[in-house]
Design brief:
Keywords: Coiled coil, DNA-binding, Transcription, Transcription regulation. Pfam families: MerR (PF00376), MerR-DNA-bind (PF09278). InterPro entries: DNA-bd_dom_put_sf, MerR-type_HTH_dom, MerR_fam, Tscrpt_reg_MerR_DNA-bd. It comes from Neoaquamicrobium microcysteis. This is Helix-turn-helix domain-containing protein. This protein is mostly helical and about 130 residues long. The protein folds into two domains: about 80 residues, Multidrug-efflux Transporter Regulator, Chain: A, Domain 2; about 50 residues. It is built from six helices and two strands. Strands 1-2 form a two-stranded antiparallel ribbon. A hairpin with a 5-residue loop joins strand 1 and strand 2. The chain is elongated, with a radius of gyration of 23 Å.
């Protein structure tokens, strides 16, 4: 399949595919005589794996590690679990921060009486 087909199949931008090739998380595509890239179903599966991992918030270093682990089906999945646990903790931390932000914004809006800016609780809260 060509790069446009791969892009549509995996839901990844063409430039992202090229970037993944440059940094080595996706193998360089074979080239046709006319220079066009050609990708296999294995490439499509690997790209879908990368996209899903990135959607879950894994950074590229973790994606590389997870891809390497995938190449060793008989190895322990302890490293994969450790990486996933660290990502879960990061997500939970972001959720806690977002909940705190929601609470503060709700408080600011609840106290705002939509009067004049000189008496605006939103502006006042942002000023400290």
């Amino acid at each position: 399949m060509q790069i446009g087909d791969l892009s549509r199949a995996a839901g990844v931008n063409i430039e992202t595919i090229r970037y993944y090739e440059r940094i080595g998380v996706l193998p360089k595509a074979t080239r046709q005589v006319n220079g066009r890239r050609t990708y296999s179903q294995d490439d499509a599966r690997r790209l879908s794996f990368i996209r899903h991992a990135r959607d879950l918030g894994f950074d590229l270093a973790d994606v590389r590690t997870l891809l390497a682990l995938q190449e060793q089906p008989e190895a322990s999945c302890e490293d994969a679990s450790r990486i996933a646990q660290a990502q879960l903790e990061a997500v939970e931390s972001r959720i806690a921060k977002l909940q705190s932000l929601r609470t503060e914004l709700t408080r600011m809006l609840t106290e705002c009486q939509n009067g004049v800016v000189a008496e605006c609780r939103v502006i006042e809260a942002l000023n400290g």
